[in-house]
Known about the structure:
The structure holds three protein chains of three kinds. In chain A, a hairpin with a 3-residue loop joins strand 4 (314-320) and strand 5 (324-332). Chain A is elongated. Chain A has helices at 2-9, 13-30, 39-57, 60-64, 77-96, 99-109, 115-122, 126-148, 158-167, 170-175, 178-184, 186-198, 213-230, 235-256, 287-291, 305-311, and strands at 205-210, 259-266, 272-279, 314-320, 324-332. Chain A has a five-stranded antiparallel sheet with strand order 1-2-3-5-4, sandwiched between helices. Chain A folds into three domains: 2-150, Orthogonal Bundle (Arc Repressor Mutant, subunit A); 155-200, no CATH class; 205-332, Heat Shock Protein 90, CATH 3.30.565. Chain A is α+β, with helices and mostly antiparallel strands. Chain B is of the alpha/beta class. Chain B has helices at residues 26-43, 60-75, 87-96, 109-120; strands at 7-12, 15-20, 47-51, 79-83, 104-106. Chain B has a single domain (7-117), classed as Transcription Regulator spoIIAA (2-Layer Sandwich), CATH 3.30.750.24. Chain B contains four helices and five strands, in the order ββαβαβαβα. The longest helix of chain B has 18 residues, at 26-43. Chain C is α/β, with parallel strands linked by helices. Chain C folds into two domains: 21-173, Histidine kinase N-terminal domain (Globin-like); 183-294, STAS domain (Transcription Regulator spoIIAA, 2-Layer Sandwich). Chain C has a five-stranded mixed sheet, with helices on both faces. The longest helix of chain C is centred in the middle third of the chain and has 45 residues, at 135-179. The radius of gyration of chain C is 33 Å and the shape is rod-shaped. The chains are: A alpha+beta, B alpha/beta, C alpha/beta. Chains in contact: A-B, A-C, B-C.
Amino acid sequence: MVRRIVAARVDDAAMADDLVQETLVRVLAAAGRVDAGMLEPYAIATARNVVATAWRDRDRQRRNQHRVVDLDTPDPPDTELLASEERAAVAEALARLGDRDREALLAHEVSGRDTRSLAAELGSTPGAVAAQLHRARARLRVEYLLARDHTEPPTDRCRPVLLALSSGDRRRQREVEAGRHLLECDACAGLSQPLLDRAPPREDAVRIPVDGDGDVVAARQAARELAARLGCFSRTDLTLIATAVSEVTRNIVKFAGSGEVVVEVLEEPRTGVRVTARDTGPGIPDVERALQDGYSTYAGLGLGLPGARRLMDEFAIASEVGRGTTVTMTRWCGER
Amino acid sequence: MTGPRLVSILRQGSHLIASVHTALDDTQMTAFQHDLVDRIGRDRSRGVVIDVAALDVLDSFATRTLRTIAEVARLRGAVTVVVGIQPDVAFAMVSLGMDTGALHTALDLEEGLALLDRIAGGRRPAVGARGGPA
Amino acid sequence: MTGYRGQGTTTGGPGGLDGLDGLEGLAEDQLLPQLVAHLREHRARLRHEWADRIQLAGLLHAMTPQEMAAETTSVYDNYVEVLETGSVEALQRYARDLSERIIPRGVETHEVVGIVLLLRDVLARSLFEKYQRDFGLLNRVLDAYEPAANRIANTVAVSFVEERERVIRQQQDSIRELSTPVLPVRERLLILPIIGVLDRERARQLTEQLLNGIRTHRARVVVIDITGVPEVDESVANHLVQTVDASRLMGASVIITGLSPVIAQTLVTIGVDLSKMDTIGDLQGGLEEAERLLGYPTAGGDDGTAP
């Protein structure tokens, strides 16, 4: 029921998920305080409030506002089932949190306690409490998704990866090689979708899923656009970058079938762009050889790697047979 | 196969003028190759000008495809000239290390047609199949 | 603000300066105007003292005494004005003007910073002399003076360095342009004389210039003269090959001239395929060949080209 209320107002599955979660956390927490017969109206009211708040808060508002419709209240029998499933999932997710996390989260989200008063009570600082709440929310999202789908992560690498994605901690995502894991693990790829969609679009990075021919063009155009925004690359620089991206992306399509290309703006140690092309294909048995063809014998192994390397300032390749290949290449601004 | 918006192939006298209007992916590029080669055969063209001025990247695949077209066209008795390669694209192509030695090239459509006329006029073009008497 | 009352209120400095009566009861924000009045009054003497110190320190020796006198006077007046108005913009403007004048004369950053610091010290010392009998007042005066003076020193130094960097950049740009001119000799024909050492960055700029030049001038033949290139190593050779290939892609033939036998041998040793390049001994021969390619009548032949 809550899902339907939210979904009727929100045309975006990931956002709807988020709002449903938020609503249910509140409803669930209020369950003790609200008369059993009141629970349903309370849930509807809460859902409306949550959605309304979300509309105020979110930029997406403008895009979707015309889709907001008024709620009719027919209640087909299965909505009750759906709602109870949601509730069960949230309850389970909450149960899987540590005691301290759960209490802090409920005190903050449901009772409306601010971080300052929580900090005073816990003998901590508001900053530390905020960080704890952030982690707890991240964990709740992950556990909710797992409970909703009635799945357990297939490997012990899954949870850390999902957590890093949920909390939006990029450093941690790199540490646990989140990108690579998502290519390898179908379960996590599916589970992570709402988490990834949740993240606000990054201004300084773009990720292009690579699945076929057309993505080669898409990747090089995205790379050119992002690099052009820096303002420090000449037209020739941009063409060199785009050409290099074209080559490494084609390798993914040709040898692995699918993968991804991530283009990021770098600030340190200098301004530049870094391109990461990643796949979980067959891998390259002899990387040295793939890189070592002479200047004019481009054809070589047909990987286009030596060419791409010549177009960029830095170039690294890691490949493992049976596990896939990651090409990382950078071009710096400057020297002109 | 290839949509009319991506490329256009026009006949002008005994020549074909093929213009690529937008970035092509590999499948579209290959389709373009087939279309063009078909037309060369059907029209018994003596010369083909391929205008790539609209392309901001000519990577290894695109370059190889252009070479293939030129080679197949040659076997069918037509000379191919690629025109409109932009300065930055040319620079990227050579930086990439593409072997483009056998490809006839000219600055733009006008120069390309002039080059074809010179070649068709029975005079072998000068150095590297470019230049020659104006 | 304390209710400070000076003790030796009637004593002038050793320089016979006026009494302190006017200052003792002053609010802090009135101290600076008083200082300024003092520095204006003794302008001639203090400026001289400063100029002497500059000479003693061996700074600005690139300037004639007249120039020195003129510049020190304007710096002094600007300095006092900034103390008075607190407006750094005027000083910045002046410092940039000054820098523009003196940079071409080879004045170094340390000299500019040096003279401003000397002026700061000369003035501080005169204040010290004037107020030394009243230590408390002296402290207040210096408290008002020092931050302002340091800000001025800072502003001048920064403006100078910025101006200097700008000039250097400008010079580098013009040198770069000079060293890689793409010369349209006649219709459809460009000459690119390369002089000096080719590094990666310069080779790249040169190629970009040439390629853009080919499009702008609709060039069909390019003569690259490398007589002025002292040595050709593998990377320079590769750049040359790239430049030739890229020019060809734009429809222009390239003739390389000035290739000495030694360099030619080097190229062959490196593995450069010279048969792919059209090379001709000297520039004159290269131009003749170019005109022949373009179909212009030349001294020794018709406009045809032998296969």
